Each structure stands twice: as structure tokens, then as C-alpha cells.
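Chapter summary example.
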Amino acid sequence: MLETCPIEHDSIISRQVRERLSNENFCTACWRGYQATWQIEDDKLILKRIEDSKSLFPDTVPEVTVDLNGIFDQYQDKRGRVIASWFSGELKVVSGEQIYYVHTGFNREYENETDYQVEQGRIISKTSYRNSIKKGTSIKDAMNLIKTQFNRDYFPELANTKVVISCAVLPKADGSIDSIEVHIIRPNSIMEERKNLYIEHICEILKKAPQWEVLTVRNKIRKTERWVISLSPPKKQTRGISAQ
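The structure predicted for these 244 residues follows.
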């Protein structure tokens, strides 16, 4: 699967393709409204076809393709192949099991990855990787840990104050912590000295996690996504008044 959109790298081509789309059966699973099929031949990136999302969702609809004539004429070679000579950059091709997913664009990782460097439609180099994930403490686990162990007794000034923080953790290969990033978003009108004490307390909590999830992509351990957590003050107990 290709996780790059070469057509979107040229605003004129992108507009011309969109002008020929049906705009029917629009689905957020394909914001572009089309799916292009590509092939690498003779170290060249070649556009084979463009399918309208009308026939992608649902896939029971007969295939609807976009007419390439008039859009890509200047990019055809002597054999009639559409060479993506407008495109220079990186192509990311993935396969195997999906090991990491965030519901935004192509923010996901797979076991197998090959990155092609392209200059004017020609492949100049490629590098293959074996990505992996080792299960352990997740962001959800970390948020629950902070919620249950953040001790307001250490900070009387926070007794009735909502605390909002953002965190990110860089683990080591064995799941232990390499570094922690903590930012106090709220309250913002506090002395730096007190803020540092909050950060120190949160770091101590995160260090209690037995082993962190380790995501290795392109031979490098990746820092967790930055997450935001809101810590509301405990609700005050109200005592009922019984009728005499």
C-alpha cells in the first residue's frame, strides 16, 4: 500500500482530477474522493488509473474510473505510460500487519516499509525497514496512572483547581524510560518553582509504570504521541439535612 499521494503534489493536476469526480458516496475514509493505482517500472513511477470513490464505498458499485486524457497528456512517454515527472519526494510503501494507528491521514505504521526517493518521477534510491512494536504501558494506561496517583495533598493551592497537562515519553529498547516531556497547560498563573514541582511529581508517577510500549520505526525508537490529560478537583461531599 502506498502512503503517499503524488497527485496532490501538483495543485493544477489535483484540481483537474477533482473536476472529473462524481462527488457521490463521499466517505471520510477517502477525503480525496479518489484512489490512484501506481506501478514502478524501469525505475519510473507510473500512474495506471484513478478510481472514483463512488465505486470504492460501497465496493459493490461497478468500478468508476477517471478519464486521464487531457490531464496527463504531457507526462506520457513514447509507450503511452503516464510518468509522474511532476513529483519529487519520498514514496512510502507498506505491507504486513498494521502495528500502530492514529485516526489522521496516513499516521499509521506497518511491519514492512520501503521508502523510495524520487526525482521528477524517477526512482533514485530505496531503503527497506522492518518496523516493530513491543507491548507495554500505553498512553491510556499512563493517563489512568496519573489520574489515580496525582496527590493534591502535596499542593494545597490546587485543592479546588483543575490541572491540565500534556506529556510524552521516549522509551528505551527494554521498555524503561529514556526521557519524559511534561508541560503544565493549566493553571498558567503559577510560579515557575511550583510548576517544576508539579512536573517532578508527574514524572515520578510515570516512572512507576513497569514497562512502556516500544514502537520502533525506521530503526529508531519513536517517542509516544503527546497526550493531554485534565485532572479535575474532587467533588465536595454534601451532607443532607433530615426533616424533624
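To summarize the output: DSSP finds three helices and twelve strands in the chain.
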